[in-house]
Amino acid sequence: MQRYLHYLRVEQPPAAETAVGARERLGARFPRGAARRMTHLGMLLGAALEGLAVTEEDAVVYATTFAETRALEDFLASFPAASPLLFQTSIHPGGIQQVLIGLQQPVTRLWPLAGRSRLVEQALLTALLEPAARVVLVGGEERGTWLLEQKLANDRAFAFALLLTHEAAGSLGRVTLDVTAGAGPEVPPTPAPTLAGFADALAVRQGLGWRGVDGNWQLEVR
């Protein structure tokens, strides 16, 4: 099984950037008033998707481990005088939904995935099995503070966006799964890339390969 990459963008903001800083840096890219209610992750995903026209026929696969952890932290930090705005932000739809709602863009299917050690593998497998001709694969995290100490947040913020199709012409690379080399008791899987590691590899156009649960995975990027 394989699909070809036809769009690739990674957002890696300054290490100390918060949602407030992101609004100052990215706010002009979103509909008026929308950025005020968006999370940091939502804005990063929107920026990653800026050069791609998502259509109603597309399917979207969304991968994240911790989602809007910083938004939750900020709301809890506002107690005992709980902030209505931070409450609204903390319960807002997930990052990719914020982007699609702001664009008023329906899609054929949305597959939100959460996980840890094999999240990248799950997201890629979902993209390969999706019947839509075009699959938009997005993922990302917010940077946590005290939740990071509890291992319930990521240590840095990032977001990425890919467009995967069956068309080889003009592609930037491809993702393949060789199911004939499936892992088993005698050949166990090797560690899969983390979501952050996957984003880092995309940012520098670095290929990846690992033995997964269902076979051998290969990411080629030009």
Structural topology:
Elements: E1 2-11, H1 19-26, H2 40-48, E2 59-64, H3 69-77, H4 84-90, H5 95-103, E3 109-114, H6 119-129, E4 135-141, H7 146-149, E5 158-165, E6 173-178, H8 195-203, E7 208-211, E8 216-221
Parallel strand pairs: 2-3, 2-4
Antiparallel strand pairs: 1-5, 1-6, 4-5, 6-8, 7-8
Helix pairs in contact: 1-2, 2-5, 3-4
Name a few traits of the molecule.
single chain; 222 residues; alpha+beta; eight-stranded mixed sheet; 8 helices; 24% strand
Question: Could you please describe the fold and organization of this structure?
Answer:
By secondary structure, the chain is of the alpha+beta class. It contains eight helices and eight strands. It has helices at 19-26, 40-48, 69-77, 84-90, 95-103, 119-129, 146-149, 195-203, and strands at residues 2-11, 59-64, 109-114, 135-141, 158-165, 173-178, 208-211, 216-221. An eight-stranded mixed beta sheet has the order 3-2-4-5-1-6-8-7, with helices on both faces. Helix 2 (40-48) packs across helix 5 (95-103) and helix 3 (69-77) packs antiparallel against helix 4 (84-90). The radius of gyration is 18 Å and the shape is globular.
